[in-house]
From TrEMBL:
<feature type="transmembrane region" description="Helical">
    <location>
        <begin position="186"/>
        <end position="210"/>
    </location>
</feature>
<dbReference type="GO" id="GO:0016020">
    <property type="term" value="C:membrane"/>
</dbReference>
<keyword id="KW-0472">Membrane</keyword>
<dbReference type="GO" id="GO:0055085">
    <property type="term" value="P:transmembrane transport"/>
</dbReference>
<dbReference type="InterPro" id="IPR000515">
    <property type="entry name" value="MetI-like"/>
</dbReference>
<keyword id="KW-0812">Transmembrane</keyword>
<keyword id="KW-1133">Transmembrane helix</keyword>
<dbReference type="InterPro" id="IPR035906">
    <property type="entry name" value="MetI-like_sf"/>
</dbReference>
<protein>
    <submittedName>
        <fullName>Probable ABC transporter permease protein YqgH</fullName>
    </submittedName>
</protein>
<feature type="domain" description="ABC transmembrane type-1">
    <location>
        <begin position="1"/>
        <end position="206"/>
    </location>
</feature>
<dbReference type="Pfam" id="PF00528">
    <property type="entry name" value="BPD_transp_1"/>
</dbReference>
<feature type="transmembrane region" description="Helical">
    <location>
        <begin position="70"/>
        <end position="89"/>
    </location>
</feature>
<feature type="transmembrane region" description="Helical">
    <location>
        <begin position="39"/>
        <end position="58"/>
    </location>
</feature>
Length: 213
């Protein structure tokens, strides 16, 4: 999200405020196509291409990185969620009434000043809700992290290390024939409950922010 939110916001501003109709149509069509790509394709892209590229960059700077790392998974999920968040942020920016834009520009403001002083503050609740919805969408991602992040339960803040996620653990614990009363199945259901509560709280807060608008 640290990469996607600034990139998505600037992309949405360009598409809604600066791009021509032809460019906007091409970009929106491309975003729709990218949104329809299965997540397993992004996971394959992360394992085959992105992991190799990140390892080469890390070796160039003399850093040690695992073949499966949190950085690779985070970047691949960011690429996956980018079309989704751009579409949400573009809708938020385009929802600003034109009367506010034209009124501020009539006072002598430039288009850039109008964006940062009128459009962004007015659309901020919707922008925040879009970011929260994107976070809740990212938290439930399974296939990409299963392929790119590994299964090592390593508690660390170093993104170059191999770690694990809740969704990976759920998929790992439920792999194979397990008895319903087994420890593995009960642990998977407990993790699913935690994931559900986190996602529900994020969605509820996003709806609260939208209603405050």
């Amino acid at each position: 999200m640290l990469v996607v939110v600034p990139l998505g916001l600037f992309s949405a501003i360009y598409i809604s405020e600066y791009a021509s109709e032809k460019v906007r149509y091409i970009v929106n069509t491309t975003l729709q196509v990218l949104s329809a790509i299965p997540t397993v394709v992004y996971g394959y892209f992360a394992v085959v291409f992105l992991s190799f590229f990140i390892k080469q960059v890390a070796n160039f700077f003399g850093l040690s990185i695992h073949s499966e790392s949190a950085l690779v998974a985070g970047l691949s999920i960011g690429i996956m969620i980018l079309p989704f968040i751009i579409s949400l942020l573009e809708d938020a920016i385009r929802s600003v009434p034109k009367s506010l834009r034209y009124g501020f520009m009539a006072l002598g403001a430039t288009p850039a000043e109008t964006i940062w002083h009128i459009i962004i503050p007015y659309a901020m609740p919707t922008i925040l809700s879009a970011i929260l919805l994107s976070i809740s969408r990212v938290i439930g991602e399974t296939m990409i992290v299963l392929m790119a992040v590994g299964i090592n339960a390593n508690l660390t803040f170093n993104p170059l290390n191999s770690v694990t996620t809740i969704t990976v653990q759920i998929a790992t614990l439920l792999t194979g024939d397990q008895d319903f009363n087994s420890v593995q199945t009960l642990a998977a259901y407990a993790l699913s409950l935690v994931l559900f509560i986190i996602t529900w709280l994020l969605n509820a807060f996003a709806l609260f922010v939208m209603k405050r608008n």
